[in-house]
Amino acid sequence: MRAPFIAILILMVGARWTRAEDDFERPPIQYSNSQPKNAVSHLQSRLEKGDVRLAFDDANGYLPSLLRTLRVPVESQMLVFSKTSMQRNRIAPKTPRAIYFNDDVYVGYCQSGEVLEISVADPSLGAVFYTLEQKPATHPVLTRQTGKCLQCHSTSRTGDVPSHLVRSVFTDAEGLPMLSEGSFRIDHTTPLENRWGGWYVTGTHGNQSHLGNLVIRESPVPRPVQNPEGHNVTDLSKRLHLSPYLSPHSDIVALMVFEHQTTIHNLITQANFSTRQALHYQAVVNRALGQAADAPLESTSQRIAHAGDSLVKGLLFAEEAPLGGPIQGTSGFAEEFMRRGLRDTQGRSLRDLDLKTRMFKYPCSYLIYSPAFDELPRVMKDYVATRLKQVLNGSSGDSIPNDPHQDASDFAHLSKDDRFAIREIVKQTKPGFLPP
């Protein structure tokens, strides 16, 4: 038994000391060498076959045609003026970068930019990045990008997997982020007062504060931060020329949904990778021991449980920052977003927005319908479904039956009525998902 023991020891030491950001480049993920299968790669295949064409216009290049083809709504437009992307030299408070999104695809546009920047939630590979040159071509090409994009999108800030990153930073008059003043990574747990530094924000939100529309003109940043002129802004025309953009808005509701969505996409990727890596490691160890490849290891179960529990908490909006009053956007995004919802026999949908005390009326993420979620490894998908059922069968403040991994307080925000409604909606709109 000495040789197998030595082999296992080497494997364990290697796994411990390998740089985490390189793990997804090794089997079983092999991120850069794997063929993506997603909405953007499918579009590229259709372009090559001549089944679809992208139109180029002098004002915005391929942007309008690309959005239509990928079914990305213009109402989702958000404007970010901090220099925090690959075309940073094009970005400033007078020339912000525009971002558009649907449930799977994100598109970035800069005035006079050389390329459109595109990312997509790939069911097997997490965030996959592409560029499209902004010049007329008979056969435009969506080119996959790896190394340059992964410098920012596969760090400890993104869970060491290819992911999306949304940040709030103090930004000076040139658009430079003042990183020495601190920054915030934004998701649905972030208090509004820390959100949207470096972003334009259109919409109303009462007396709630945030960092949107704020350009810092002195250093250090005066504390406490005062931003009265940046609040309840519904018209950006006095801050920048809006004619180069497809919409005059940077909708507050779109921003909130965007932040939640990128967070869940990242958690799905972590759950996917953790499971596949754990099962791969298990098979290698078992082969060294002369056992069946699928003989269970405790470490495999632990990795699946850890990633699965994090995903369940995200799906159910654990620790969501409460809203202090009604929020309303300006672009029509909220109406367009809710219109696309799957509905049960009572007309309820997981896309129904609340926007008074919390983001959604029924706090369970609509991304349970996404291709990335549906293509999670079976063992992870079953784990998440079981955990969701256990939570939804409980009541507010009660312990979660047979659930040693999660604290009931993680879900104390869900009332008995919330849990019942979510359970009924999911049963009807995603039949067979929750265990009987």
Describe the structure.
With 436 residues, the protein is an alpha+beta fold. The chain has helices at residues 2-17, 39-49, 63-70, 147-153, 252-289, 298-315, 333-339, 371-374, 378-393, 416-429; strands at 78-80, 97-101, 105-109, 115-122, 126-133, 142-145, 167-169, 183-185. It has a domain at 266-429. It contains ten helices and eight strands. The chain has a six-stranded antiparallel beta sheet, with helices on both faces. Strand 3 and strand 4 form a beta hairpin. Helix 9 (378-393) packs antiparallel against helix 10. Residues 1-21 and 396-402 have low confidence and may be disordered.
Approximate shape: globular
Averaging pLDDT over every residue, what do you get? 91
Largest sheet: 6 strands, antiparallel
Distance between the termini: 44 Å
Strand order of the largest sheet: 1-2-3-4-5-6
| Beta strand count | 8
> From N to C, what is the helix and strand string?
HHHEEEEEEHEEHHHHHH
Give the low-pLDDT segments.
1-21, 396-402
Strand content: 5-15%
The oligomeric state of the chains shown is single chain
Radius of gyration, Cα only, in angstroms? 23 Å
- Would you tell me the structural class of the helices and strands? alpha+beta
Treating each run of at least 4 consecutive H or I residues as one helix, how many helices? 10
Helix content: 25-40%
